[in-house]
Amino acid sequence: MVEETDSASNVITMREVSKRYGDETVLKDVNLNVQSGECIVLVGHNGAGKTSLLKLMLGLTRPTSGRVEILGKNPAFSAAVAQRLALGYLPESVVFYEAMTGREVLIFYAQLKGADKIECEKILDLVGLGEAAKRRVGTYSKGMRQRLGLAQAMLGNPQLLFLDEPTSGLDPVLRQHFYELIDGLQKEGATSVISSHALNEVEARATRFVIMKSGAIVACGSLDELYQQASLPVRMKVSVTPGEASQVAERMGSANVSNINNQSFNLSCFNDEKMQLIRHISSLGDVVNDMQIMPPRLDELYNHFMNGDAV
Amino acid sequence: MKMLWVLAQKELRDGLRNRWIAAAIILLGTLALALSLLGSAPTGSVRASELDITVISLASLSVYLIPLIALMLSFDALVGEFERGTMMLLLTYPVTRWQVIIGKFIGHVLILFVAIFAGYGGAILIMTMLTGGSIEGWQAYGIMMISSLILGAVFIALGYLLSVLVKERATAAGTAIGLWLVFVVLYDLLLFAALLLDEGQLIDQQLFSILMLISPTDSYRILNLSLFEGVSQAAGIAGIASEAGMSGALLISVMLLWVVVPLMTTLFVFQRREL
After folding, report:
1. Which of A168, A65, A154 minimizes the C-alpha distance to A113?
2. Does the pTM of the predicted model rise above 0.80?
């Protein structure tokens, strides 16, 4: 019953979805609900099933078992064709018709989506291809292709964006610019699904992370939820009056102490012991000069889920 | 409808951009003109008009050339887009798979249409200005142009079928040559070999007619070489078609069937394909 009401408000619904090619299982028992306005980031190694998942959502492939619904319809059915008007997709390492110019390519796609030429020019300027639009796509650099890729995905104000490794091969400046463009779409209420190998670059914009490993979802949730699930230790660095370090370190009780030198030492503890420990340290008085708290880093979180000790 | 036109237009533009259309017009036009000018020489004794001779020589050449041109246009149409990855992106747009196939088909047929009508049509205009012609001769020439276009459409459809079936572009190119050989050369060769070996025991007139009829290239030949009296007398195969009870409509229907069946099969395979 709950499932029924769920799927009504979902933009994307996947139930027990598996995909096999011959003997090879690329996705197994994937369950995922995405609500309107969310920004979902799929994270995982190459071959974890991110692209396979996106292709199922786009209706390019059909699940071996299970159910996929995008905006309430099975995307692989031809009845869902009209819905693709509301959909933008940037494939991993996007390819275009090399002999056409950037503008011709964009106008071709715009015609298929019912967008007009004025919109094309606007988008070309927005992604910074206004000047290069009259050149053949064959002469474009990787970054320019990627920008043209985003341009075509932005046509027709999509409600739902699928971006497969959108910033791979881009330099940091372009990468930043790229995310600004995506943020712009997000603000207009678009729902997006972005795949990435790295957590850090998408950290700020994700409402939820979906961590994938060998075709299965190993963890799913907001950053806070993931930290909670992983229960990684919090580390602290405590600086004390020179010469007092080992003495103070002995009074740390159950916390794990390491790297003791003359005037500082490191501590690690679980999140739920953290406040107690901080109170204890501050009660030690003037001997403590400084204290840095280092929450677990994203790559530690990522490694935690990837190295198989999770779930 | 709009989608079909957008997709067809893309193919047409590609044809213009890479000078494909220009090259084909020049090739077909030059051949037609050369054949009609050369063809003027032996007309005296058989009293055939120059235009009839031109139809015979052009049709005999077109039966080799048009399928080759059509296959060159089409063998890459699907496998090329699969291999490069452009098909995947295209199919996330609001187009159905049948629209992709039919849209491409319309575009490629239009390219052939322009090439044949500008090339052959241009040549006959020049010919008429030089020598004049008969109404019947023009009619035969017109049928030759239309049936050449249909023959081209047959091989575009066959090209798509192989393009959707093979895994790589290189294989598609090889298979296209094989397909051309089988349809244009080997089938007739085998048919005549069988006829000679059989000595009329199994293969009677009727079976032979059917065997000729089911080949799109033979249908094209019969249509152009024996349907018009002037032409068929000059070609020396007078009345073959009418004796075997083959009307122009039947021959054209057979060729159209060769367009529809491969196209439908292509669509069937494409619908099931995962990208």
Report:
1. A154
2. yes
